[in-house]
Structure formats: C-alpha cells, structure tokens
Amino acid sequence: MLVSIFKVICFCVLVSCNTKTADFNITVNKNIVYQTMKGFGASDAWRCQFVGLNWPEDKKERIAELLFSKEFDENGNPKGIGLSFWRFYIGAGSTEQGRNSEIRNEWRRGESFIDADGNYDWNKQKGQQWFLNKAKSYGVDNFLAFSIAPPVQWSLNGKAYNSDLKSGSINLKADKFDDYAGFLVEFLKHFNAKGISFDYLSPINEPQWEWEKKTQEGTPATNKDILLISSLIDNYIKENNLSTKIVIAEAADLRWLYSDYGKPKRGNQIDYFFNEGVKIENLDQTITGHSYFTTWPIDSLITIRQKLHKKLVKYPNLDYWQSEFCILEKNNDIEGGRKRDLGMATALYVARVIHADLTLANANSWQWWTALTNADYKDGLIYLDTGVKKNMHNLESLKFDGNFHDSKLLWAFGNYSKFIRPGMIRVDSKLNTTLNLKEQYDNLMHSTYLNKETSELISVVINYSNEDKKVNFKNFYTDKMYVTSEDKNLEKVAVNNENIVFESRSVSTVIGHLKK
Length: 516
Fold this sequence. Notes:
disordered N terminus, Immunoglobulin-like, about 30% helix, globular, TIM Barrel, 19 strands
C-alpha cells in the first residue's frame, strides 16, 4: 500500500513538473519573412600572420577546426562553429618598414604584396594564406578581402597610419588612386587563379576615424574618396571579368550610416552611396557598419538600430551587414574591453548585440573582428598565451608557439554560425510577455530562421537572466537542442517538447519543425 502511494506521489510530482505553466510562449509564423541570411564570420587580422606561419601543425589544425568545421563528434556535439564568412586582411607594408613604421607592436603591422618598385611577392602574408586555404578546404561559403590603408609607398606621409588630422581625406597621394585600385584587383586576380575567388572586396575600413595613433594601420576617407576608389575598382573588375562585388562602407559607428553624426563628409553613408545618381556596376547592394560604441546602455542598443532600420526601409533592395565588432565601450555588465574573459559574461553580452542587429536592424550577416587574439582583451574568439603566468602575453615567443583556448564567446557565436546557414530566412516568431523590449534584453530573447530546403526551423534563445526559464513553443516541434552555458560548449542536450527549460545565463539553439 505504501509503495503504491509513493508511486502516485512521484507521478503527480513529475506531472506537475512537466506541465507547469511556461514562463514564456513562443509562436512561429513562417509566412511572415524578413531578411535572407548571408552568414557569420570573423577576420584573420594580425594574429593569424604568425600562428599560420610558425605554429606547430597540430595546433593550427585544431584552431582551424574550431573556426571552420561543420562536422559533429561521436556524441553529436559540433567540432567547430562552422563560420560561413572569412575576412582576409590586405596589409599595407608596415611590416617591411619595421621600426620605421612607428607601429611598435609587430602583431599589429601588416605585410604588403607589392613593393615600392611595383613588384609583387605572393609569398607575403603566408600565415594568413594558411588560414585562407584551410577556410576553403572546410567549405566556407563567403570570402571577403578588406583593406585598412593603402600601401605605404603611395601614402602622403609614407606611413600606414595617418598624420593629417585636418582634412579627413584618405592618406593617399592624388596620383595613386588608380594604382591603389589596380593593386586591389591584382590581389583578386592572383587568388582567383589559385582557386580562391573572393566574393567581396571592402576597400576602406572605418573611414570616420582619423587613424593618427601609431598603433596600427589605418586611414580616414571621405565619402567622395570611397566613391572614387570604388569606381576605379569597378572598372578593373569589369576589365578582368571578375565576379567580385565591392562592399562599403565599414562605418566605424552605425550612426554614420543614417546621419552625419558630426562628420558630414563621412556620414549619411546610406543616402550618399545608394542614391539613384551612383552608377557602379559591381557595387553590391549592401551597406556595412560596425556596432562599436552603440551597445550600451540598452536603450542605445535598441534605439540606434531602430533608427538604422527606419533609414534602411527607404531602400528596400539594400542589405545591411554588421561587419566588425568586439568589446570596446565601457558598460555595467562586463566593464569594457580590457582583460580577456573566456566565460559566459562576455558571451552573453555579444549574443545580445547579435540578437539586436539581426532582429532590429535586420542584418543578414554578422561578423566578429578577429578570430584569434594574443592580447589581454575581449577581442578574440580563440585566445593565445604562453602559459607562463608571469609572462602570459610575450609577443616574441608567441610568434612561434603557445597555448590556445576556446571561449564561451566562440561557442555562443556558434549557436548562430553553426546552424543559421547562408540562404536561410528569418521568420516571424512572437514571444508572449508583459515585459517591454528593454526588459526582454535582460531576460529572454529569441529569433527564428527557416531552412527552405528542409523546412527545418532554427530558433536561437538567449537567457540573460540568473534563473532557468520554461518556454512552450506553441506550434513548433523540437528535434534537437544545443546549449552554451557555464558548463556546456554548444552541447547537444535532450529536449522536452512540452516546456523546454533554458538554463540561466545561456545561449541555446533549438532545431525543429512546425506542428501539423
């Protein structure tokens, strides 16, 4: 008798647990569609040059697997995050200048494929080329080449950084615009012949900054400069029958895309470049911007992207990519960029930025700044160090070998990049809640994507709160779920279709299909 009573009690407890009213309900409507996704990516800037050139093969191979692999291990867990965009940095030649470049940190200099006499050396940037070839071998979908500064021999001051703070114009001699455009297209031609066709070329990066600090390569540029260079590149692309598209303008702050924001010659870039008077055949119908300094407080994260979207709807054929981000601005959640963080705090902060860019500004590509970092900073997906506590970031020894560490950020990014593939469409999904948008950004966020070929639905759910949340997908049947949390790295977990529990401080990807 006691055993029977015990069984009944246990059954009731289980039923109560499994049927408890969900904290949130989500309803998916695949008939309301938003942007078609191009993919998720990162750049090889700076750090790949030494790791790809000098590090032991087994370590390089594992780093490449973490970044590019789309495969699963024997337990059904992803081996990597399956990036679908890879950004290749075209250096300006500060490496060849050495100390005369005045950029003290070797890791922030770049080699150049062309010298002062106009000779090309395609063995330059060999470490970056190693990663480029690995990205191709793993089947990365999109390749983008980007330039931060013109080759030093053509710059006004003979340097890869800028020393003229007055004009805001590009650090390039007036008679070298055509040479610069020709150089970039020669780069495209070379790699196209080697079997790597760059889908996109971005000739100018963050033109609103003055780039006067001697810390890395970079140049300002006016909208007029960018338009001229793009026109010249367009001519060379047509002459050489290349398929590469030009993407602009890598705005340093999203506000420069839709307003002058204090720099009229370098702002209002959507209106400037995509009005009816601009006729550049190979200019992609895409505007690119960086989410730096627009993510805190949460009110700014939301309103800036709403304003950007308001501008974008006036250009219905124009796509928007968030093409570079890492932690720079100070905030209450993770303080700021200094001090690396391999844990969930930074991963969640970035996931929230991704969510805002995808759902408020309808970004159809989201790209992280640099895949690897050797710095004590929140700017990498994979972190490098010596393993020696007293000298963790020794730049000389790290050129040849060291330790590497994945991060929760890597895996949380993978919740998007691994499963939301190019060609998928973001569809409408409603969260029933009394929370306003700002409150949701400290609680539960989600977005849903449709794979038209398989009819699968992929929903990414961010639980920013310190409590587990039960969610009922009203018309969505779940097949699989992958979780990044304090103790999980994009781990496959069992899922209960009635009320799915999303762990506190986690990013989860749910894969399923609509109920019939």
